[in-house]
Amino acid sequence: MMRSAILCLMLACLLTAGCEAPDRSPPAGYGDPYPAPLNDPQISVLSAELRPWLLFHPAIITKDHRRPMQVQVPVRNAANRMYLIEYRILFYDENGVELSPVMGWQMAPMEPKQTVRLKAGAMDVAAESYRIEIKWAR
């Protein structure tokens, strides 16, 4: 009896000795299968419900090396009802680094079938590109 208990105890020790503790480290990041610029659009509609109803015209960009970049993005509400949206325009330098300060969210009412110009100016003459983000107003 004692011999079988010792044998069972030794067998249990052998079985548990081979087990490793589970890896609790965070998983490694994955590469994006969609390379830039496809995965980093200049116009980003953050609210999926708005995407089919907002139609964008080419941006109007004013830039010289004495004054900061100015951007106006004409957008038309294709729906039959009024939308209240918020937008912000982020500015980047020639290396793609986001410039500070970052613009706060601006509210814009959009009447049915009408076009509005979403506009902003960079605070730094180093601004070379932009990205506009649009979402439902809170």
Strand adjacency order, main sheet: 1-8-5-6
Q: Helix- and strand-based class?
A: mainly beta
pLDDT below 50 for ≥5 consecutive residues: which ranges? none
Q: Could you tell me how far the N terminus lies from the C terminus, measured between alpha carbons in angstroms?
A: 74 Å
Word description of this protein:
The model has no long low-confidence stretch (mean pLDDT 86). The chain has one helix at 2-17; strands spanning 43-45, 54-56, 60-62, 70-77, 83-92, 106-110, 115-121, 129-136. The longest helix is centred in the first third of the chain and has 16 residues, at 2-17. It is mainly beta and 138 residues long. The chain has a 4-stranded mixed sheet with strand order 1-8-5-6, with no helix packed on it.
Q: What key phrases describe this protein's structure?
A:
12% helix; 4-stranded mixed beta sheet; mainly beta; 4-stranded antiparallel beta sheet; 138 residues
Chain-wise SSE layout:
Layout (H helix, E strand, L loop, with lengths): L1 H16 L25 E3 L8 E3 L3 E3 L7 E8 L5 E10 L13 E5 L4 E7 L7 E8 L2
Parallel strand pairs: 1-8
Antiparallel strand pairs: 2-4, 3-4, 4-7, 5-6, 5-8
Briefly say what this structure is.
The protein is 12% helix and 34% strand. It contains one helix and eight strands; from the N terminus they run H-E-E-E-E-E-E-E-E.
